[in-house]
Amino acid sequence: MHMSGRILRATLEENTPTMLNVTNVTNGKLLLKNAGANDIHIGYDRSDVLLATGVNYFVIEAGVTYIFDQSNGVGFLSQNTGLFFAAQGGASEIQIWVANQS
To answer: Which end of the chain has fewer CB atoms within 10 angstroms, the N or the C?
Structure first.
């Protein structure tokens, strides 16, 4: 078994949606870390993470890391599309590690 993947760090401006590639089509892990001082909203659509229109979003609180298992059978968080990220309450930094089996 060989592991590969990619690591991405992005500074997010307040209430400015940014699409980031978190796709993974093999078995692996997705790590999302909010390395900033403000919450980050995550959604499948740009309008989901805007303060004016957002109702369907997931929040990563400042300083929190989430780890998601991914497999090619079930449990895809985002198999073939990116996710939108937006900092709320001020700028923040997201760190992403997509670790997959190749």
So the answer is: N
How far apart are alpha carbons 76 and 26 in whole angstroms? Answer: 9
DSSP type of residue 52: T
Question: Which residue has tokens 């001020």?
Answer: 90
pTM (two decimals)? 0.85
In CATH terms, the fold of domain 3-101 is Jelly Rolls (2.60.120)
Which residue in 87, 97, 101, 84 sits closest to 45, CA to CA?
A: 84
Are 18 and 85 in contact, with CB atoms under 8 Å apart?
Answer: yes
Best CA proximity match to 14, nearest among 95, 94, 90: 90
